[in-house]
Amino acid sequence: RKNLIVFGTRPEAIKMAPLVMEFLKHPDDFVTKVCVTAQHREMLDQVLSFFEIKPDYDLDLMKPNQNLYSLTADIIIGLKPILEEFEPDYIYVHGDTTTTMATSIAGFYSKSIVCHVEAGLRTNNMKSPFPEEMNRCVTGVLSTIHFSPTKTSKKNLVLENKPEASIVVTGNTVIDALKYSVNKVKSVDFADNEINQLEGILNKNRRIVLVTGHRRENHGQGFINICKALKKIALDNEDVQIIYPVHLNPNVQKPVYNLLKEIENITLIAPISYPAFVWLMEKSYMIITDSGGVQEEAPSLGKPVLVMRDTTERPEAVEAGTVILVGTNQTKIVEETQKLLDNYEWYNQMKRLHNPYGDGKACNRIVEHILKDENER
Ligand code: UDP
Questions:
Q1: Which of 93, 190, 199, 287 is most buried when burial is the number of CB atoms within 10 A of its CB?
Q2: Is 247 considered catalytic here?
Q3: 245 and 161 share a domain?
Q4: What order do you get walking across the sheet with 57-58 strand by strand?
């Protein structure tokens, strides 16, 4: 049987890399090929090199002023000759990007079995996050097999009348990636310049508050509020160093550099590679983020997370208590951070909570299911 695994952005690559590695352990059962759309070029390449994945096909679609219309069209058109030549039985897509949605359309046209990894996340508001909620709903409609990270995401799909037998709860593959990465980064023969440089800029006497933010819904006033909150936290807490790898999007860069660049205990750096980020998460006291992946990863490392969003498609983390939603409300961000900095009992309680996103064996469950599916078809 032939597998084609398709992804285009850094977070997708991180979450699909362990699946590629797991399928490659079964060369007698599957021919597995990887296609990247390279919706994000540079950040994607760093992940590929860390996981030692060489794509078989590369659409190389990143262009200046890329827009959703041309990207969607280019992905579908770019995949056509690949699907015609390779004729995959199974196509795997991940999550909610334009690559995910457009690939599932192409996979439907080619009559392959579309398998959606990280299926069933919903805000149930088609306009938010935009365009991700639409991407995941369309992909859900076109997929034959849904690999849901949690029972909650499975329930969302059942409510949309997807057959129960088509949904498999696996845990999130991000935990598989994280476990592999933590081991690799800690191994004696792993050397990384970026980690060495980061070591040089960390102040050993201060608690590290790691910040990331990029979401479209926070652009504008949201980022201004976030920056004002970070400034207050920094000024009120001399024993804290805020480290912020700033996303390359100008809508993020502009407010962040304007408002935060000259504060002694705020260190703004360029986005860092995945292994360096994993290393930095481990060194952190706590994390403030609007990222989906980071809030799934951090609890496995015992790091409390504040999430700067008003709505979430990840209610499991809020219910488990491993993350607290603070939106982009300046006062709320400051108060919840201060509570974690000052109240050790509260901090330790949050640190110890169980991560609802899995045990690091999601990819193994996916492969086992496909082996079974293949025999049944
Ligand atoms: N990440 C990274 N470098 C950074 C910031 C984040 O490698 O400077 C990783 C992080 O560990 C997580 C993923 O990128 O696995 C999250 O990506 P992002 O926040 O861009 O997207 P989202 O998860 O919100 O879709």
A1: 93
A2: yes
A3: no
A4: 57-58, 31-36, 2-7, 90-94, 113-117, 145-148, 167-169
Q: Cα 374 from chain centroid?
A: 29
| Domain membership flag for residue 176 | no
> Which residues contact ligand 1 via a Cβ below 6 A?
10-11, 14, 212, 214, 245, 271-272, 274, 277, 291-294, 297
Q: Is the domain of 7 the same as that of 106?
A: yes
pLDDT in tens, 28-87: 999 999 999 999 888 899 999 999 999 999 999 998 888 999 999 999 999 999 999 999
Please tell me whether residues 280 and 327 are part of one structural domain: yes
Residues spanned by the domain of 104: 2-171+361-376
What is the CA(11)–ligand 1 centre distance, in A?
6
Tens-digit pLDDT profile for residues 296-326: 999 999 999 999 998 889 999 999 999 999 9
308 and 277, same structural domain? yes
Which pLDDT tens digit goes with each residue over 123-167? 999 998 999 999 999 999 999 999 999 999 999 999 999 999 999
- Total structural domains in the chain? 2
Give me the CATH number covering residue 16.
Answer: 3.40.50.2000
* Cα dist from 229 to 100, 175, 259, 265, whole Å: 34, 30, 11, 14
CA of 291 to the centre of ligand 1 (A): 7
